[in-house]
Specification:
The chain starts with a strand and ends with a helix. It is globular, with a radius of gyration of 24 Å. Helix 9 packs antiparallel against helix 10 and helix 10 crosses helix 11. Helix content is 45%, strand content 19%. The relative contact order is 0.12. The chain contains 12 helices and 13 strands. The protein has a 6-stranded mixed sheet with strand order 11-3-12-5-8-13. The chain is α+β, with helices and mostly antiparallel strands and 336 residues long.
Length: 336
């Protein structure tokens, strides 16, 4: 900073550093907000131990919900995974996830037997994690396979920030210790072990998603790019910090120091929506969470979501979730 003739002059470097500090603060705040909502609402996992040369069509089974995140944790051995025509070698400790339940194959060697672990699962509920062994070779691969469901996947900007296929190596990493603990829970089950296993899987999922969300700094569109934008990111921070505030476009543009046209254009270019539409979608997502978590009256939830009438809230909720709030709450409780 220089002072010349009584005027404060700020260097371009200082401005750039200031923008980066704001960007980093926005990123950490909104990332924490998103990950706080990555809570497992349903999970299924089993141990799969094929041996020799083999292949498995690991596409989502009929029992897997369409909105679930499928995963494989390679606890022992090595193999390959094929997605979208490309094969990737997996090593012990590797974790793969499919946020959109995309079709894929796993296997070892070539021309081996076709194994179907999903078809060999025992009826639920399970008191212990099923262990499914296939083949008689001493060259064994060991997976923890399954799926998890989490509410964050129902918020479109977060969902669109994720790729179809995620691959994380845990070599020399603290996550490797979590994988080892998962194996121990499977091998030496104790009372309450299924709940512990679910929590450990939740930790793995959180860390995998956090790394994925932090790994693409050069994106120019989508939620991650919006977080990093000095104007849109600040606006998102305001909306997420105080979603019940009756924000108007005028309020938001005054807070971020931009004109209406600039704010709206930046939102549209990066997120494909406007600030007020984004705020409405976020409130509807929060309303969805409230319906799942308690017995609050729907009229009260509608008011908090910014709707002047329960009927207007019902119409918006149906557009976003395919059914009215009361039916949604009843359906979720019945399937829990």
């Amino acid at each position: 900073m220089k002072v010349a003739g009584g005027t404060v002059q700020v260097s371009k470097l200082s401005l750039l550093q200031g923008y980066r500090r704001v960007e980093q603060a926005n990123l950490q705040s909104l990332m924490s907000e998103a990950l706080r909502r990555v809570r497992i609402t349903e999970a299924l996992q089993y141990c799969y131990m094929p041996s020799g040369d083999w292949e498995t069509d690991a596409s989502p089974a009929s029992y897997q919900p369409k909105d679930a995140i499928g995963f494989h944790i390679l606890a022992g051995g090595s193999c390959w995974i094929e997605f979208d025509g490309r094969r990737t070698t997996l090593h012990e400790g590797d974790i793969t996830a499919f946020p959109f339940s995309s079709a894929h194959f796993i296997g070892a060697g070539a021309g081996g037997q076709i194994f179907d672990p999903g078809g060999a699962l025992p009826p639920q509920p399970w008191s212990e994690t099923p262990i499914l062994r296939f083949g008689d070779s001493d060259r064994v691969v060991r997976f923890l396979c399954g799926y998890v469901r989490c509410e964050a996947m129902h918020f479109l900007p977060f969902r669109e920030a994720l790729p179809e296929f995620i691959h994380v190596s845990t070599e020399g990493d603290w996550l490797n210790g979590v994988v080892s603990q998962i194996v121990q829970e499977v091998d030496d089950p104790h009372s309450g072990g299924m709940a512990i296993l679910e929590r450990l899987t939740e930790i793995v999922l959180l860390e995998v998603l956090r790394r994925q969300l932090s790994a693409e700094p050069n994106r120019t569109t989508g939620w991650l790019a919006a977080i990093r934008d000095p104007i849109v990111g600040k606006c998102l921070q305001l909306i997420h910090r105080d979603p019940l505030c009756p924000w108007t476009l005028k309020d938001l543009k005054n807070e971020v120091g931009a004109s209406r046209s600039v704010l709206s254009e930046r939102f549209q270019n990066i997120l494909g929506t406007g600030p007020i539409s984004y705020m409405r979608d976020w409130r509807l997502f929060l309303a969805r969470e409230q319906l799942l978590q308690g017995d609050q009256a729907i009229s009260s939830i509608a008011f908090e979501a910014g709707y002047s009438s329960e009927a207007a809230f019902n119409r918006a909720f149906v557009r976003a979730n395919g059914m009215p709030p009361a039916a949604f709450r009843a359906h979720q409780r019945k399937s829990a």
